[in-house]
Model the fold of this input.
Amino acid sequence: MRGKGLTLAALSSAVLVVLHRRVLAIVRHPSWPPPPDAVTPDRAQAATEAFAARATAGPRDAALDFAWSTAATLDPWADGENFFPRILADIEAARSSVHILMFGWREGEVGMRMASLLERKLADGVEVRVIVDGLGSRPYMQAREMFSRLAAAGTEIVVNDVLPPARVGLFPAGRPVWRLDRLGRADHRKLYVIDGNVAWTGGAGIEDHFNDGRFHDLMVRVTGDVVRQAQAAFLTSFRGHGGPLPADLSPLFPAPREPGSTPIALAQVIPGGFVAASQAVREQIDQARERLDVMNPYLTDHESIEQLLAAAKRGVRVRLVVSENSNNHAATAALKHRYADLDAAAIEIWEVPNTVVHAKVVIADDIVSFGTLNHDAWALYRNSEVLMIAQSPHAAELLSERLFEPDIARSKRGTAPLRTRKRLTGWLSHKLTYYL
Done:
């Protein structure tokens, strides 16, 4: 019996080592700035066609370098009561295609409203393709009925599975494959591409708590040349999960009526070490000279906090906007453990009451970034994420006006915890940030 016990313990230890290396290891390759051969808007269709022609291409292979591009409009909207009606209106106006890449799409009021609208658009002949995350959207569990209805109506759906077996091909009949490199890798992106000429991205899922005030988030409507790159990001990921693409992709990549003149780049994190989005936002913070406004729900990464401290020490006015009470108590405690350091550097910490601050936004002088990137180890290095970063005084002003200033006005200054229990909890959480 003792021998069996030792064998079981050794096997368990080996499994834990493998899981630690496969799931928790942090890998980062140089991914930013975009290289000279990065995909331009004009080459987005060709890059997608080349990807589709590969004999074997999985989700990790969709790590495209995107060149700097241009946007015609950047229109940020805070809170679901403002952005959901506009997103639904854009989908209602769709004439050719609706593509949705979504971590969390659940079967609540907002989710069912979206599903019903898509069923009507399918009946009108609009093509609908969807990528959902198995953990965030539960398409094979609680939300199965909703997604099954969509699939029966003609929606082509693929699923990013966090736990094995990963399913390759269209929902619900995907082919199971056993790949450890997909274990624990959530697709945390939120991206809509409508008719190939309108994109939306930000932090909000298609879930009721983003619509009723429980979660405070931001979505940004984008038009211009960069939308063709967003289309390529969606379609290569869709194909990487085994989704079929039409033989002629040209209708999905229309030339924009207004390419725009605002410099903008689309950057992603793709599991396996492609961390362009993480490196882009780090560069943005390091280049701040006058102001740095940061809103993020889960700021636990040591390097990110050290960057904020360095910015303050070189004379930048730094304001950090977070939840008074987050939905991730360990992440909140870990950040509060650093409040004393942040306060000593004259960084303003503003805690928003009565809601979970879930937006992921950085304003550094006149450069803005927005998307799905949290400042924790999972988002920065392990999951799939998307970010847009733009050089735009106008967008910086809009984000200040619609997001930061109203939130700071209703917030209170954050202070370091004084009670021994909270300090110990913060210290322990800080030590565990690699896993949070």
Remarks:
- The chain has a mean pLDDT of 94.
- Residues 278-431 form a domain with the Endonuclease; Chain A fold (CATH 3.30.870.10).
- The chain has two domains: 41-266, 278-431.
